[in-house]
Amino acid sequence: MNTLSIRDLCCLFCCPPLPSRIAAKLAFLPPEPTYTLNVVDSLTPVNGTIDQKSSPTKTHLVDANKSVRYTIAFSEKAEWQHSQSDIAKLEPYFVTTARHNRIACLHITCTSDPKYYILFSHGNAVDLGQMASFFIILGTRLQCNIISYDYSGYGASQGKASEKNMYADIEATFYSIKQRYNISPSKIILYGQSIGTVPTIDLASRHNECCIACILHSPLTSGMRVAFPDTKRTWCCDAFPSIDKIHRIRSTVLIIHGTEDDVIDVSHGFALYNRIHIQHQIEPLWLDGAGHNDIEAHGQYVERLLRLIDVDIPHISLKKEQQTLIVPPVQPTLASTLIIPASTANGTN
């Protein structure tokens, strides 16, 4: 991304230089779908198209119900690493976003008594079929269930990949979790990997009480800053401006980044960490020697996630409870001694 030619630059910044166009050219690489979703009773394949028995509804609040059940079938490209019996742990379903795209979601039951539910926004150039095996391994290790989704234009999801669609995709999935599984936000952890950190930060920055914690795995500050590392500000044509949103997150934020990442430099992780509200900062994980696609292979990765779940979150939750119990006494004010400044009485500042 950092070695664009003059011709590439001209194509990139075509007129008008809309952020959505730049985002599409810099970031979105939907792979050939590695799975299909089949209606349980008729086994009608759904691969980015609408089946006849379940036409899309107008809002994600209705489309997230359990009236239609699906099974998932993997192609060889998915590299499914588990037994057929493990497919029973996977519950696929569809939601319709506010932008009218019908997207595929996947609930992975890794344990009958999950500590938390992880809403996972995956990286680029993969889909749910390629991620399913990893989700089972990660969720089992963390004793958490995982819910993920494919962005518009990925896998069995309809629509076209774009920045705005991505924001609508995660929001529809989030609401489906609350409605379909009746899960409290206090039991939800948002997890974004690479490009998936973009919708994760956006959702958490707009909804203060949507989760107990955010995990940002190899995050980027903005599209322009990835393509042009010397960029110091957010331009009007920039895409994915997470650097301008992260300070609004009001839940615990864990950043994980490899020091040898040659796709999204670790400086992006540093910059985002420094913008997190100090009350919501916790110790990040800067993985020495790790790149962009091998963080999961390091033992410290799972260790840090377990510490977040078993130590950091309980400690922060206890601290919040203690703070709510300490209520400062209210001093009574007698009407006869109440003095209203003249500037206030006149309606001026």
Automatic annotation (TrEMBL):
Keyword Cell inner membrane: no
Record InterPro entries: AB_hydrolase_fold (IPR029058), Hydrolase_4 (IPR022742)
Cellular-component GO terms for this entry: endosome membrane; plasma membrane
Serine aminopeptidase S33 domain location: 113-222
Coiled coil stretches, renumbered: none
Domain of life per record: Eukaryota
Record key words, sorted: Cell membrane, Hydrolase, Lipoprotein, Membrane, Palmitate
Membrane topology qualifier: Lipid-anchor
Keyword Hydrolase included in the entry's annotation: yes
GO terms assigned for molecular function: palmitoyl-(protein) hydrolase activity
Record's catalysed reaction(s): S-hexadecanoyl-L-cysteinyl-[protein] + H2O = L-cysteinyl-[protein] + hexadecanoate + H(+)
Major localization class: membrane
Localization (cell): Cell membrane; Endomembrane system
EC class (word): hydrolase
E.C. no: 3.1.2.22
One Pfam family recorded for the sequence: Hydrolase_4
Family designation: Belongs to the AB hydrolase superfamily. ABHD17 family.
PANTHER family, sorted: ALPHA/BETA HYDROLASE DOMAIN-CONTAINING PROTEIN, PROTEIN ABHD13
Designated name of the protein: palmitoyl-protein hydrolase
Organism of origin: Rotaria magnacalcarata
